[in-house]
Amino acid sequence: MSLETLRDSLPVYAKDLNLNLSTLASDETLTPRQKWGTFLASAHAVGAEAVVKAIEAEAAPHLSEDEQNAARGAAALMGMNNIYYRFLHLAQSGDEYKTLRAGLRMNLIANPGADKIDFELWSLAVSAINGCGGCIDAHEATVRKHGLTTSQVQQAVKIASVIHAVSKVMMAEAAR
Fold first, then answer.
1. Are 163 and 54 in contact, with CB atoms under 8 Å apart?
2. What is the topology classification, in CATH, of domain 3-175?
């Protein structure tokens, strides 16, 4: 499935999502690698089959196999970390849990198979989807420290928000 096919399959009530998807796909605020890695990580974070297939096809020409795996890995790792660290942030006894060793493997962060800052940007987008404030703050600070602009960060989060919404629509339509 292509991105165009995905857009064409969106119901009429999701016209704004269709338009936003088109605009974001053609935007040049991010490098092609950053943009398509963000699309791919976001699609994998939500996991709607039609969206994953369309984004996989669209991202492939822009990302090496290692970069594609890094984007998928950002979704996988943040799927774990966002839950764990959101718990630490939200639990009334969170400070007590913060003194304990997490004991969760996160080796991918040290060697993601893509540019470290791109991986951090993809992790930020997934953290926004998953709603982990602590992870959002940590990844946003890292990418900003390494030169990404406010507009670039915003663009990644816009991609994440649209991919999340498109995925939810596609899943709901499949359930009808």
1. no
2. AhpD-like (1.20.1290)
Catalytic annotation on 24?
no
Is 149 an active-site residue?
Answer: no
Question: What is the per-residue pLDDT across 130-152, written as a single tens digit (0 to 9) for each?
Answer: 999 999 999 999 999 999 999 99
| H-assigned helices in the chain | 3-9, 15-26, 32-46, 49-59, 65-90, 94-98, 116-130, 133-145, 150-175
Q: How is the chain split into domains, by residue range?
A: 3-175
Task: Give pLDDT tens digits for 15-69.
Answer: 999 999 999 999 999 999 999 999 999 999 999 999 999 999 999 999 999 999 9
Q: Which of 51, 78, 124, 132 is catalytic?
A: 132
Query: Of residues 30, 41, 75, 135, which has the active-site annotation?
Result: 135
